[in-house]
Specification:
By secondary structure, the protein is an all-alpha fold. 74% of the residues lie in helices and 0% in strands. The two termini are 25 Å apart.
């Protein structure tokens, strides 16, 4: 999902940058007003560092293309969707600067898909299914977050005229569905461990 420079028309890239900056501004405002600001900043910094490292790892897959896990759904579940956007921004920026992943003009579109779409859809489905079963809600949130982000990415590429909707849906959806299932199961385990070892993290303000 790390779209490189030159793939999207500049006027579209500007629109995506604007759409990506808005939630970042809202995040900065809300965290400045939180009574748990210091704890949130510390936890966000730690999980952002983990996200950069883990999402940069390449894991072999049966598709012949290496898997990259996102971790953003876990951030959204633990700390809230706006925090997920902020962590995605830091992660994508550092990966571009030091690993050559993605691009600068396309950073807005990458944030929109991996940050905004993934974080908010994860948190929405997590909250919608929470009363049914907590483990189910973590899995459903992660699964739907990655799928919605993939669909967002597909639409961005279609609007850019890179490929047809049919081709993108047939190639990207199965690939990221596999990632979504694996990451969903992993997040269920991680949240379960956190609830036993550091339950105070789950009680932090969700921003």
């Amino acid at each position: 999902m790390h779209l490189p420079d030159g793939l999207i028309p500049l006027w579209q890239a500007v629109i995506y940058w604007i759409l990506a900056i808005i939630p970042l501004i809202i995040y900065a405002f809300k965290i400045s007003k939180s009574q748990q600001k210091d704890k949130l900043i510390i936890n966000t910094g730690i999980i952002a560092a983990v996200t950069v490292v883990v999402s940069s790892l390449s894991i072999p897959s049966p598709f012949g293309v290496p898997l990259h896990f996102f971790i953003i759904p876990l951030v959204a579940i633990l700390l809230g969707p706006l925090t997920g956007v902020a962590v995605a921004f830091l992660c994508l920026l550092l990966q571009f600067l030091f690993l050559g992943m993605g691009g600068l003009t396309t950073l807005g579109s990458n944030i929109l898909a991996i940050g905004v779409a993934m974080s908010f859809s994860t948190y929405l489905f997590y909250k919608l299914t929470f009363d049914l079963d907590e483990r189910l809600s973590v899995f459903a949130g992660t699964l739907m977050g990655i799928i919605i982000a993939t669909i967002t990415n597909v639409l961005i590429l279609v609007f850019a005229g890179v490929a047809t909707l049919e081709i993108l849906m047939a190639t990207l959806i199965p690939f990221y569905l596999l990632i979504a299932v694996i990451e969903g199961v992993a997040n269920v385990v991680i949240v379960s461990v956190i609830s036993q070892v550091k339950p105070e993290i789950l009680k932090l303000d969700k921003i």
